[in-house]
Structure formats: structure tokens, C-alpha cells
């Protein structure tokens, strides 16, 4: 039973590293936005800068950097409660993006949110002083 949080922490960390580095090198195939023009427009506006169609915008780089940092912290088990708090806005935004704009691809976003919530629950003692 003690191995489950370890596997979830390392698995989530590796997923975040994969998706974080993808935001810099774009080696994974993009989600299929067929029939979801609003999702495609928003995704491309976050990915590319307005001045060049091939250039990168800053926001995806920032999200990718946060994902890489959080992923590394989770894999090496350093400041895990802090890393999980850093991941909350990203995981919530992933779910909301897919819920409102691309429901067909919501699976991975829900997985990230659930894994983050599970690990926060397992580390709840670290958060108790915040609620005193």
C-alpha cells in the first residue's frame, strides 16, 4: 500500500516532464481539434506569437517550464507539497480548457487533476498549517 503513492508521484512526475519538454520541442502529436475551432484557435494563440506564425508565444513556454520543475521535484522527491501546489492552477486550467472547448480530449486532463489531488491528500499534513 505504501508503494501506490510512490508510483503515483513518480508517474505524475514523468508525465509532467514529458509534456513539459513537449512544450519546448513539440515532439508529441497535438490533440485533434477537428470540430473544435474555438479550442484550436485558443491553443494556437497560446502556442504561437502574434508576430510570426512559426514563432512561439511565451505562455506555453512558461507552462512547460513549470511542468518540468514540478516533474523534477516529484521524481527526486524534493519539496513535494510545494510542487503539488504549483501544479494546481495548471491542472485546473487543463480540465476547464477541455471541459469548455474540447470535451473529447478531456481524459488526460482529468488524470493529471486526479493524480494531483490524490498526492495532495496523501501529503495533507504539510498543508494543515495553511488552514489554521
Rg from C-alpha positions?
Answer: 16 Å
Helix content: over 70%
Specify the number of helices.
6
The overall strand count is 0
Please tell me what the overall shape is: globular
Mean pLDDT: 90
H and E string: HHHHHH
Number of domains: 1
Biggest sheet, in brief?
A: none
Content-based structural category: mainly alpha
Distance between the termini: 30 Å
Beta-strand share of residues = under 5%
Unreliable segments of 5+ consecutive residues: none
Explain this structure.
This protein is mainly α. The protein has one domain (3-131). 71% of the residues lie in helices and 0% in strands. It is built from six helices and no strands. It starts with a helix and ends in a 5-residue tail after the last helix. 20% of the residues are buried.
SSE layout and pairing:
Elements: H1 3-25, H2 37-47, H3 58-75, H4 80-101, H5 107-122, H6 124-127
Helix pairs in contact: 1-3, 1-5, 3-4, 4-5
Short structural summary:
By secondary structure, the protein is mainly alpha-helical.
Amino acid at each position: 500500500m505504501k508503494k501506490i503513492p510512490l508510483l503515483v508521484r513518480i508517474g505524475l512526475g514523468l508525465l509532467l516532464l514529458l509534456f513539459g519538454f513537449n512544450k519546448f520541442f513539440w515532439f508529441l502529436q497535438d490533440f485533434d481539434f477537428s470540430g473544435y475551432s474555438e479550442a484550436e484557435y485558443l491553443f494556437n494563440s497560446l502556442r504561437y506569437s502574434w508576430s510570426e506564425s512559426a514563432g512561439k508565444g511565451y505562455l506555453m513556454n512558461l507552462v512547460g517550464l513549470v511542468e518540468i520543475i514540478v516533474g523534477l521535484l516529484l521524481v527526486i522527491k524534493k519539496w513535494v507539497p510545494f510542487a503539488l501546489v504549483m501544479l494546481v492552477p495548471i491542472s485546473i486550467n487543463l480540465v476547464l480548457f477541455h471541459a469548455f472547448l474540447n470535451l473529447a480530449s478531456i481524459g488526460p486532463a482529468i488524470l493529471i487533476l486526479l493524480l494531483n489531488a490524490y498526492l495532495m491528500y496523501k501529503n495533507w499534513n504539510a498543508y494543515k498549517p495553511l488552514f489554521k
